[in-house]
Protein backbone atom coordinates (compact mmCIF):
# COMPACT_ATOMS: atom_id res chain seq x y z
CA UNK A 1 0.00 0.00 0.00
CA UNK A 2 1.31 3.47 -0.92
CA UNK A 3 2.47 5.67 1.92
CA UNK A 4 -0.07 8.26 3.04
CA UNK A 5 0.88 11.93 2.98
CA UNK A 6 -1.22 14.46 4.87
CA UNK A 7 -0.68 18.21 5.22
CA UNK A 8 -2.06 21.00 7.41
CA UNK A 9 -1.33 24.44 5.94
CA UNK A 10 -2.10 27.51 8.06
CA UNK A 11 -1.91 31.15 6.98
CA UNK A 12 -2.82 34.04 9.30
CA UNK A 13 -2.77 37.57 7.86
CA UNK A 14 -4.72 39.05 10.84
CA UNK A 15 -6.30 41.51 8.40
CA UNK A 16 -7.62 44.71 9.95
CA UNK A 17 -5.79 44.23 13.25
CA UNK A 18 -2.65 45.87 14.59
CA UNK A 19 -0.93 42.52 13.99
CA UNK A 20 -1.66 42.54 10.25
CA UNK A 21 0.72 40.72 7.90
CA UNK A 22 0.53 40.42 4.12
CA UNK A 23 2.35 37.31 2.96
CA UNK A 24 1.04 34.46 5.09
CA UNK A 25 -1.92 33.33 2.99
CA UNK A 26 0.22 33.58 -0.15
CA UNK A 27 2.67 31.20 1.53
CA UNK A 28 -0.09 28.63 1.99
CA UNK A 29 -1.17 28.59 -1.65
CA UNK A 30 2.40 28.45 -2.92
CA UNK A 31 3.24 25.62 -0.51
CA UNK A 32 0.11 23.73 -1.53
CA UNK A 33 1.22 23.85 -5.18
CA UNK A 34 4.64 22.44 -4.26
CA UNK A 35 3.12 19.63 -2.21
CA UNK A 36 0.90 18.55 -5.08
CA UNK A 37 3.40 18.94 -7.90
CA UNK A 38 6.63 17.77 -6.28
CA UNK A 39 5.55 15.52 -3.41
CA UNK A 40 2.34 14.16 -4.98
CA UNK A 41 0.00 14.97 -2.10
CA UNK A 42 -3.64 14.32 -2.92
CA UNK A 43 -5.96 17.33 -2.85
CA UNK A 44 -8.20 15.66 -0.27
CA UNK A 45 -5.22 15.18 2.07
CA UNK A 46 -4.21 18.86 2.15
CA UNK A 47 -6.11 20.75 4.85
CA UNK A 48 -6.00 24.53 4.40
CA UNK A 49 -6.84 27.05 7.14
CA UNK A 50 -6.70 30.74 6.14
CA UNK A 51 -8.27 33.84 7.65
CA UNK A 52 -9.25 35.70 4.46
CA UNK A 53 -11.54 33.23 2.67
CA UNK A 54 -14.84 31.99 4.17
CA UNK A 55 -14.70 28.86 1.98
CA UNK A 56 -11.98 27.53 4.26
CA UNK A 57 -11.79 26.90 7.99
CA UNK A 58 -10.53 29.84 10.01
CA UNK A 59 -7.12 29.25 11.59
CA UNK A 60 -8.32 29.54 15.18
CA UNK A 61 -6.47 27.79 17.95
CA UNK A 62 -9.16 25.13 18.22
CA UNK A 63 -9.30 24.51 14.47
CA UNK A 64 -5.53 24.20 14.12
CA UNK A 65 -5.32 21.72 16.99
CA UNK A 66 -8.19 19.67 15.56
CA UNK A 67 -6.69 19.67 12.06
CA UNK A 68 -3.38 18.40 13.41
CA UNK A 69 -5.04 15.70 15.50
CA UNK A 70 -7.11 14.55 12.51
CA UNK A 71 -4.09 14.50 10.21
CA UNK A 72 -2.06 12.44 12.66
CA UNK A 73 -4.97 10.08 13.33
CA UNK A 74 -5.28 9.39 9.59
CA UNK A 75 -1.73 7.99 9.43
CA UNK A 76 -0.65 4.69 10.90
CA UNK A 77 1.95 2.96 8.74
CA UNK A 78 5.73 3.33 8.60
CA UNK A 79 6.76 5.83 5.90
CA UNK A 80 3.49 7.77 6.23
CA UNK A 81 4.14 11.50 6.53
CA UNK A 82 2.41 14.49 8.17
CA UNK A 83 3.45 18.00 7.13
CA UNK A 84 2.49 21.13 9.09
CA UNK A 85 3.20 24.58 7.65
CA UNK A 86 2.42 27.58 9.86
CA UNK A 87 2.76 31.08 8.43
CA UNK A 88 1.94 33.92 10.79
CA UNK A 89 3.06 35.51 14.01
CA UNK A 90 5.01 33.86 16.76
CA UNK A 91 5.31 35.20 20.28
CA UNK A 92 6.87 34.21 23.56
CA UNK A 93 5.53 34.49 27.08
CA UNK A 94 7.91 35.02 29.98
CA UNK A 95 7.27 33.01 33.16
CA UNK A 96 4.21 34.28 34.99
CA UNK A 97 6.30 35.07 38.05
CA UNK A 98 9.21 36.71 36.20
CA UNK A 99 10.41 39.98 37.68
CA UNK A 100 10.50 43.13 35.51
CA UNK A 101 13.88 43.72 33.86
CA UNK A 102 15.02 40.15 34.57
CA UNK A 103 17.37 38.71 31.94
CA UNK A 104 15.93 35.49 30.60
CA UNK A 105 17.26 33.03 28.05
CA UNK A 106 15.10 31.43 25.32
CA UNK A 107 14.74 28.36 27.53
CA UNK A 108 12.76 30.37 30.08
CA UNK A 109 9.92 31.37 27.74
CA UNK A 110 6.80 29.66 26.47
CA UNK A 111 7.20 29.81 22.69
CA UNK A 112 3.85 30.09 20.91
CA UNK A 113 2.35 30.34 17.48
CA UNK A 114 -0.45 32.89 17.20
CA UNK A 115 -3.76 31.75 15.63
CA UNK A 116 -6.12 34.39 14.23
CA UNK A 117 -8.19 34.40 17.45
CA UNK A 118 -5.11 34.75 19.73
CA UNK A 119 -5.79 31.33 21.34
CA UNK A 120 -2.08 30.65 21.64
CA UNK A 121 -0.62 27.24 20.80
CA UNK A 122 2.45 26.53 22.90
CA UNK A 123 5.48 24.39 22.30
CA UNK A 124 4.13 21.82 24.76
CA UNK A 125 0.77 21.69 22.95
CA UNK A 126 2.62 20.75 19.74
CA UNK A 127 4.66 18.17 21.62
CA UNK A 128 1.56 16.52 23.08
CA UNK A 129 -0.09 16.34 19.66
CA UNK A 130 3.06 14.84 18.13
CA UNK A 131 3.23 12.24 20.90
CA UNK A 132 0.22 10.51 19.34
CA UNK A 133 2.12 9.72 16.14
CA UNK A 134 2.15 6.06 15.18
CA UNK A 135 5.61 4.55 15.13
CA UNK A 136 7.37 5.14 11.84
CA UNK A 137 5.24 8.13 10.81
CA UNK A 138 7.33 11.21 10.10
CA UNK A 139 6.12 14.65 11.19
CA UNK A 140 7.67 17.75 9.61
CA UNK A 141 6.96 21.34 10.63
CA UNK A 142 7.91 24.46 8.71
CA UNK A 143 7.31 27.38 11.08
CA UNK A 144 7.54 30.68 9.20
CA UNK A 145 7.25 32.86 12.27
CA UNK A 146 9.43 34.18 15.05
CA UNK A 147 10.04 32.28 18.30
CA UNK A 148 9.60 28.89 16.66
CA UNK A 149 12.88 27.15 17.51
CA UNK A 150 11.42 25.22 20.44
CA UNK A 151 8.08 24.22 18.94
CA UNK A 152 9.07 20.56 19.03
CA UNK A 153 10.17 20.34 22.61
CA UNK A 154 13.33 18.41 23.45
CA UNK A 155 14.42 17.79 19.87
CA UNK A 156 18.09 18.47 19.23
CA UNK A 157 19.19 21.71 17.62
CA UNK A 158 21.10 20.57 14.53
CA UNK A 159 21.50 23.91 12.70
CA UNK A 160 21.46 27.15 14.67
CA UNK A 161 22.59 28.50 18.01
CA UNK A 162 19.41 29.69 19.71
CA UNK A 163 19.59 27.05 22.43
CA UNK A 164 22.99 25.39 22.27
CA UNK A 165 24.84 28.56 23.20
CA UNK A 166 23.41 30.39 26.20
CA UNK A 167 26.06 33.10 25.90
CA UNK A 168 25.22 33.79 22.27
CA UNK A 169 21.73 34.80 23.34
CA UNK A 170 22.73 36.92 26.32
CA UNK A 171 25.37 38.71 24.30
CA UNK A 172 23.02 39.47 21.41
CA UNK A 173 19.92 40.74 23.16
CA UNK A 174 18.82 42.15 26.47
CA UNK A 175 15.39 40.84 27.36
CA UNK A 176 12.85 42.96 29.19
CA UNK A 177 9.68 41.14 30.12
CA UNK A 178 7.45 44.18 30.44
CA UNK A 179 8.26 45.82 27.10
CA UNK A 180 9.82 43.04 25.05
CA UNK A 181 12.81 45.23 24.13
CA UNK A 182 14.30 42.47 22.03
CA UNK A 183 12.39 43.97 19.14
CA UNK A 184 12.68 47.67 19.89
CA UNK A 185 14.89 48.02 16.84
CA UNK A 186 11.97 46.90 14.66
CA UNK A 187 9.30 49.32 13.53
CA UNK A 188 6.56 49.61 16.13
CA UNK A 189 3.64 47.39 15.26
CA UNK A 190 1.24 50.26 16.02
CA UNK A 191 2.93 52.36 13.32
CA UNK A 192 2.41 49.84 10.55
CA UNK A 193 -0.72 51.47 9.23
CA UNK A 194 0.95 54.89 9.24
CA UNK A 195 4.14 54.07 7.39
CA UNK A 196 4.73 51.53 4.62
CA UNK A 197 8.35 51.01 3.66
CA UNK A 198 9.18 50.93 -0.03
CA UNK A 199 11.93 48.33 0.42
CA UNK A 200 11.14 44.75 -0.58
CA UNK A 201 11.70 43.61 3.02
CA UNK A 202 8.46 43.88 4.97
CA UNK A 203 7.37 43.51 8.56
CA UNK A 204 8.59 41.03 11.14
CA UNK A 205 6.59 38.02 12.23
CA UNK A 206 7.04 38.52 15.94
CA UNK A 207 3.99 39.78 17.82
CA UNK A 208 5.33 42.04 20.59
CA UNK A 209 3.86 41.43 24.01
CA UNK A 210 2.22 44.90 24.32
CA UNK A 211 0.43 44.32 21.00
CA UNK A 212 -0.60 40.80 22.04
CA UNK A 213 -2.02 42.10 25.31
CA UNK A 214 -3.92 44.88 23.52
CA UNK A 215 -5.52 42.48 21.02
CA UNK A 216 -6.47 39.96 23.72
CA UNK A 217 -8.08 42.71 25.79
CA UNK A 218 -10.13 43.74 22.75
CA UNK A 219 -11.16 40.20 21.80
CA UNK A 220 -11.95 38.92 25.30
CA UNK A 221 -13.18 42.21 26.86
CA UNK A 222 -10.85 41.37 29.75
CA UNK A 223 -9.40 44.82 30.32
CA UNK A 224 -7.36 43.61 33.29
CA UNK A 225 -5.19 41.33 31.12
CA UNK A 226 -1.48 41.63 31.98
CA UNK A 227 1.56 39.42 31.45
CA UNK A 228 1.08 37.95 34.91
CA UNK A 229 -2.44 36.65 34.15
CA UNK A 230 -2.55 36.31 30.36
CA UNK A 231 -2.58 32.51 30.60
CA UNK A 232 -5.55 32.59 32.96
CA UNK A 233 -7.46 34.99 30.70
CA UNK A 234 -6.95 32.68 27.71
CA UNK A 235 -8.12 29.64 29.70
CA UNK A 236 -11.23 31.44 30.96
CA UNK A 237 -12.08 32.67 27.47
CA UNK A 238 -11.32 29.55 25.40
CA UNK A 239 -11.91 26.95 28.15
CA UNK A 240 -11.22 23.38 26.95
CA UNK A 241 -9.93 24.68 23.62
CA UNK A 242 -7.14 26.67 25.30
CA UNK A 243 -3.58 25.50 25.75
CA UNK A 244 -3.38 22.34 27.84
CA UNK A 245 -0.26 23.74 29.48
CA UNK A 246 -2.10 26.88 30.57
CA UNK A 247 -5.00 24.80 31.89
CA UNK A 248 -2.67 22.59 33.92
CA UNK A 249 -1.01 25.65 35.44
CA UNK A 250 -4.38 27.14 36.34
CA UNK A 251 -5.56 23.86 37.91
CA UNK A 252 -2.39 23.63 39.99
CA UNK A 253 -2.75 27.26 41.02
CA UNK A 254 -6.32 26.62 42.18
CA UNK A 255 -5.23 23.50 44.06
CA UNK A 256 -2.50 25.37 45.90
CA UNK A 257 -4.73 28.36 46.72
CA UNK A 258 -7.51 26.25 48.22
CA UNK A 259 -5.43 23.86 50.29
CA UNK A 260 -6.49 23.69 53.91
CA UNK A 261 -3.73 24.98 56.19
CA UNK A 262 -3.37 21.66 58.02
CA UNK A 263 -2.84 19.88 54.69
CA UNK A 264 -0.18 22.28 53.49
CA UNK A 265 3.45 21.89 54.45
CA UNK A 266 4.29 25.38 53.24
CA UNK A 267 2.36 27.75 55.51
CA UNK A 268 3.78 30.74 53.66
CA UNK A 269 2.10 29.65 50.42
CA UNK A 270 -1.20 28.91 52.15
CA UNK A 271 -1.38 32.13 54.11
CA UNK A 272 0.24 34.69 51.84
CA UNK A 273 -2.69 35.71 49.66
CA UNK A 274 -1.03 39.07 49.19
CA UNK A 275 1.83 37.49 47.21
CA UNK A 276 0.43 35.50 44.29
CA UNK A 277 3.94 35.12 42.90
CA UNK A 278 4.46 32.43 45.55
CA UNK A 279 1.67 30.41 43.96
CA UNK A 280 2.88 31.08 40.44
CA UNK A 281 6.40 30.05 41.34
CA UNK A 282 5.19 26.70 42.66
CA UNK A 283 2.99 26.17 39.59
CA UNK A 284 5.87 26.95 37.27
CA UNK A 285 8.07 24.48 39.12
CA UNK A 286 5.49 21.73 38.75
CA UNK A 287 4.58 22.34 35.12
CA UNK A 288 7.95 23.27 33.60
CA UNK A 289 10.28 20.80 31.93
CA UNK A 290 14.00 21.07 31.44
CA UNK A 291 14.78 21.98 27.84
CA UNK A 292 18.52 21.62 27.47
CA UNK A 293 18.95 21.13 23.73
CA UNK A 294 22.69 20.82 24.06
CA UNK A 295 22.68 17.80 26.38
CA UNK A 296 19.84 15.79 24.89
CA UNK A 297 20.36 12.09 24.37
CA UNK A 298 20.83 11.18 20.72
CA UNK A 299 17.44 9.48 20.57
CA UNK A 300 15.39 12.38 21.95
CA UNK A 301 12.13 11.89 23.87
CA UNK A 302 9.56 10.93 21.25
CA UNK A 303 9.15 7.18 21.01
CA UNK A 304 9.94 7.16 17.30
CA UNK A 305 11.97 10.40 17.03
CA UNK A 306 10.02 11.28 13.92
CA UNK A 307 9.51 15.01 14.57
CA UNK A 308 11.44 17.49 12.42
CA UNK A 309 11.25 21.28 12.67
CA UNK A 310 12.50 23.87 10.20
CA UNK A 311 12.27 27.26 11.92
CA UNK A 312 12.39 30.61 10.15
CA UNK A 313 15.07 32.25 12.27
CA UNK A 314 17.13 32.12 15.43
CA UNK A 315 15.71 33.18 18.81
CA UNK A 316 17.47 36.55 18.65
CA UNK A 317 16.36 37.28 15.04
CA UNK A 318 13.18 38.32 13.25
CA UNK A 319 11.38 36.37 10.52
CA UNK A 320 10.36 38.73 7.72
CA UNK A 321 7.76 39.22 5.04
CA UNK A 322 9.32 40.06 1.66
CA UNK A 323 8.38 41.03 -1.86
CA UNK A 324 10.97 38.97 -3.76
CA UNK A 325 13.40 40.97 -5.88
CA UNK A 326 13.23 38.33 -8.61
CA UNK A 327 10.14 36.21 -7.95
CA UNK A 328 10.31 32.61 -9.05
CA UNK A 329 8.31 31.97 -12.20
CA UNK A 330 5.77 29.82 -10.32
CA UNK A 331 4.99 32.76 -8.02
CA UNK A 332 4.86 35.65 -10.50
CA UNK A 333 1.35 34.86 -11.67
CA UNK A 334 -0.12 35.50 -8.23
CA UNK A 335 0.61 39.22 -8.15
CA UNK A 336 2.92 41.76 -9.70
CA UNK A 337 3.96 42.87 -6.20
CA UNK A 338 3.18 39.86 -4.06
CA UNK A 339 4.48 39.42 -0.53
CA UNK A 340 5.56 36.11 0.96
CA UNK A 341 7.16 34.96 4.16
CA UNK A 342 10.91 35.02 3.53
CA UNK A 343 11.38 31.47 4.85
CA UNK A 344 8.43 30.04 2.90
CA UNK A 345 9.51 31.80 -0.28
CA UNK A 346 13.09 30.55 0.04
CA UNK A 347 11.99 26.92 0.59
CA UNK A 348 9.60 27.03 -2.36
CA UNK A 349 12.21 28.68 -4.59
CA UNK A 350 14.77 25.98 -3.77
CA UNK A 351 12.34 23.11 -4.32
CA UNK A 352 10.86 24.61 -7.50
CA UNK A 353 14.27 24.85 -9.16
CA UNK A 354 15.25 21.31 -8.24
CA UNK A 355 15.18 18.54 -10.83
CA UNK A 356 12.10 16.36 -10.18
CA UNK A 357 14.28 13.27 -9.85
CA UNK A 358 16.42 14.82 -7.12
CA UNK A 359 15.71 14.93 -3.41
CA UNK A 360 17.07 17.29 -0.77
CA UNK A 361 17.75 16.27 2.79
CA UNK A 362 16.56 18.41 5.68
CA UNK A 363 20.09 19.70 6.19
CA UNK A 364 20.56 20.52 2.50
CA UNK A 365 17.24 22.33 2.29
CA UNK A 366 17.99 24.51 5.31
CA UNK A 367 21.45 25.40 4.01
CA UNK A 368 20.15 26.26 0.52
CA UNK A 369 17.31 28.24 2.06
CA UNK A 370 19.92 30.31 3.91
CA UNK A 371 21.58 31.08 0.58
CA UNK A 372 18.31 32.28 -0.96
CA UNK A 373 17.62 34.53 2.03
CA UNK A 374 21.08 36.02 1.66
CA UNK A 375 20.43 36.68 -2.05
CA UNK A 376 17.23 38.50 -1.03
CA UNK A 377 19.21 40.75 1.30
CA UNK A 378 18.22 39.03 4.55
CA UNK A 379 21.65 38.49 6.08
CA UNK A 380 20.18 38.65 9.60
CA UNK A 381 17.69 35.78 9.22
CA UNK A 382 19.13 32.29 9.66
CA UNK A 383 16.79 29.26 9.56
CA UNK A 384 17.21 26.47 12.07
CA UNK A 385 16.82 22.68 12.02
CA UNK A 386 15.63 20.66 15.02
CA UNK A 387 15.42 16.87 14.98
CA UNK A 388 17.20 13.77 16.19
CA UNK A 389 20.48 12.83 14.52
CA UNK A 390 18.78 10.16 12.44
CA UNK A 391 16.64 12.66 10.51
CA UNK A 392 19.20 15.32 9.66
CA UNK A 393 20.14 13.73 6.35
CA UNK A 394 16.88 12.10 5.26
CA UNK A 395 14.79 13.59 2.42
CA UNK A 396 12.60 16.55 3.31
CA UNK A 397 8.99 15.55 4.18
CA UNK A 398 9.08 11.98 2.89
CA UNK A 399 11.24 9.37 1.17
Account of the protein in words:
Belongs to the peptidase C14B family. One of its GO terms (cellular component) is cytoplasm. This is Peptidase C14 caspase domain-containing protein. InterPro entries: Caspase-like_dom_sf (IPR029030), Metacaspase (IPR050452), Pept_C14_caspase (IPR011600). One of its GO terms (molecular function) is cysteine-type endopeptidase activity. By secondary structure, the chain is of the alpha/beta class. The protein has one domain (5-216, 292-391): Rossmann fold, CATH 3.40.50.12660. Helix content is 31%, strand content 14%. The protein contains twelve helices and 13 strands. The protein has helices spanning 24-38, 61-73, 123-130, 166-172, 209-220, 230-238, 244-257, 267-271, 276-287, 329-332, 342-352, 362-375; strands at residues 5-11, 46-50, 81-87, 90-93, 110-113, 121-122, 138-144, 157-159, 201-204, 307-311, 320-322, 340-341, 384-386. It has a seven-stranded mixed sheet with strand order 2-1-3-7-10-13-8, with helices on both faces. A three-stranded antiparallel sheet has the order 4-5-6. Helix 1 (24-38) links the parallel strand 1 (5-11) and strand 2. It is globular and about 55 Å long. The two termini are 15 Å apart. 47% of the residues are buried.
Amino acid sequence: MAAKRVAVLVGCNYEGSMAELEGCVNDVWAMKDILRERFHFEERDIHVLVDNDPKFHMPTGANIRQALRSAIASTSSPNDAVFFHFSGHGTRLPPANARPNAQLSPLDYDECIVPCDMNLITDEDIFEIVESLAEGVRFTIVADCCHSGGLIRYEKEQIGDSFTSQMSWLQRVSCNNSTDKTYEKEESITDRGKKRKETHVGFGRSLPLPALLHIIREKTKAKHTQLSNIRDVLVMNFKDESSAKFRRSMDLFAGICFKKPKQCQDQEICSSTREPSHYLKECDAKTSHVRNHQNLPSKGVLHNNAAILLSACQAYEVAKDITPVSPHKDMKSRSTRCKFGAMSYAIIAVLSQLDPSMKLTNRQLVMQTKSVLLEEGLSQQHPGLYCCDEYVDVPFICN
